[in-house]
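User: For documentation purposes, I need each entry recorded in a consistent format: the amino acid sequence on its own, followed directly by the corresponding structure tokens. There are two entries in this batch. Please keep commentary to a minimum and don't merge the entries.

Assistant: Recorded as requested. Entry 1:
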Amino acid sequence: MTAMLLPRENARFVLGPLPLLVVGAAPGVHGELPALVAPEGRVPVCDGWQLMAGLTVCVLDGPSGGCLIPTLAETGDVDGMVAWCDAVAQSGGGVVVSLPEIPEDFDWDEIFGGGRARGGFVRGMELEEAE
């Protein structure tokens, strides 16, 4: 397995009905995730992938690779990161959206309907499993 350290500026942690992790410029991850097609708002499950949400690092682990993303250490937004991690735990995972690059402004219709995004729902990994 190959894991890369993804710079914090290449990730966004978004709270919504389901927590979103948007990553950009992560070719190993982007190439491995399925095309993101969400008919009628239903996001497919990414089998074989796991998401570990932590206050200092977020881990996205896939069948043949993944990435580590610094979280709190880079932003200092304790309340926002705690809320996002709690949402991942309560939802049993989060929606991962991989793009060739992080856009300046998010156009969700373009992201979910433009054909460039890859990803889907990734099940959360319990911290006990990670040890």
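Entry 2:
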Amino acid sequence: MSVKLSGDSLTPFLHIVKQYDHYIQTKDVRGIMSLFVTDDEPHSFGLHVNLNEREALRQRFTDYFNAGESFSAEFAAEPVVYHYGEAACLCMMLPVKGSEGAHIRVTIFLENHSGQWLIRHQHISQSPV
């Protein structure tokens, strides 16, 4: 049975969100890729494109940064994290800059690899509310 985390148990997951945001803001492809599993099966679905391999994901971040796009992981509320064994699911809402009341919904599935939480799957979509 999964457990909803709170308090100090959220710390490693909040750290991942802050790292992700830092790498987006600094346009650091190598840094952001370090947050994903190292095998060739990370998955990213949502807003612009669906990706199912590491090189495609790396290229998408490269293209995204070269296009001058950017978003911030300043969440509207603290992320919700469910933990079960070596897996965790992080859910959060991000406000869309310049669009009053609009949010992006982010769901991230993480795996614990030798003590390091890595992203296996991310889904990013516009929130209906």
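Summary note for entry 2:
DSSP finds three helices and six strands in the chain.
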